[in-house]
Design goal:
CATH class: Alpha Beta
Oligomer: single chain
Shape: globular
Keywords: Methyltransferase, Transferase
CATH architecture: 3-Layer(aba) Sandwich
Radius of gyration: 17 Å
Organism: Trebonia kvetii
GO molecular function: methyltransferase activity
CATH superfamily: Vaccinia Virus protein VP39
Strand content: 5-15%
CATH topology: Rossmann fold
Protein name: SAM-dependent methyltransferase
Pfam families: Methyltransf_19 (PF04672)
Helix content: 25-40%
Number of helices: 10
Number of domains: 1
Structural class: alpha/beta
Largest sheet: 8 strands, mixed
Length: about 270
């Protein structure tokens, strides 16, 4: 076992402040996945969102399936380190599990600005002994903090798979964040994005969430999302509905027209 992994695995899990009086993004998403790391206020928010936009009943499952396919693709393409920004609460087929199934030496850093997420992640997500899994409490918009913290585990002079799945929708200046991360990445790195599209099926749910909850949700057009990928080499089939990006036999069943856009692109 590596000394790094042993040190990480032995770190004490500290208590984090939990507010059970208001919905929390990570816990609502966990509720949509049928998880148990949530409160009634989160389950109620999930039910309200799905009642308003029934298509959201499939969103979390489709998102996790896309992450699995995207990480597997990059690992098979030779990527051995991943930066997963906007981790969310632990669930099956986490990034390090998928990557290390291809190569046990893969290194993964999870980034989230919710300390509760990272407490759960550190307690429950263990790396393969040959690899390394790190956890970073940082906001995605603080690029120096993200890169500086990630550099403690990853070699950013080498290609890295940057994952931003359903996190950019909560960032007002998402274009600047993506541009900053891509600019700092080595040639041969990959950017993976998934983002809810401007779609009439989602607009009422967006207003419901933004009325009562932070952070605010931003829906964006295919053109806006595509502009983040300018100068990168899109992996086929390009920017498409999430369940149309290289579907796999183990994917959950979901509608063909989910209003979630997804892409994987390589930095030349």
């Amino acid at each position: 076992m590596s000394e790094e992994w042993l040190a990480e695995a032995s770190r004490p899990v500290r208590a984090a402040k939990v507010d059970s009086s208001a919905p929390n993004v990570a816990r609502v998403w966990n509720a949509m996945l049928g998880g148990r790391d949530n409160f009634e206020v989160d389950r109620r928010a999930a039910r309200q969102l799905i009642a308003t936009a029934p298509v959201l009943a499939h969103a979390a499952y489709a998102s996790r399936a896309f992450l699995r396919r995207a990480v597997r693709y990059q690992a098979e393409a030779g990527i051995r380190q991943f930066l997963d920004i906007g981790t969310g609460l632990p669930t099956k087929d986490a990034t390090h599990e998928v990557a290390q199934a291809t190569d046990p030496s893969c290194r993964v850093v999870y980034v989230d600005n919710d300390p509760v997420v990272l407490v759960h992640a550190r307690a429950r997500m263990r790396s393969d002994a040959e690899g390394t899994t790190g956890y970073l409490n940082a906001d995605a918009t603080d690029i120096p903090a993200v890169l500086g913290g990630a550099a403690q585990t990853l070699d950013l002079a080498q290609p890295v798979g940057i994952l931003m799945i359903d996190v950019l929708t909560f960032i007002a200046d998402a274009a600047d964040v993506v541009a900053g991360l891509v600019a700092a990445a080595a040639a041969g790195s990959y950017l993976t994005v998934m983002h809810p599209a401007e779609d009439q099926r989602l607009t009422v749910a967006q207003r419901l969430w933004n009325r009562d909850t932070e952070p605010q949700v931003h829906l964006r057009s295919r053109c806006q999302i595509g502009s983040w990928l300018d100068g990168l080499e899109l992996v086929d089939p390009g920017l498409v509905e999430v369940n149309q990006w290289r579907p796999a036999p183990d994917d959950p069943e979901c509608p063909d027209d989910l209003p979630l856009l997804a892409a994987v692109a390589k930095k030349p």
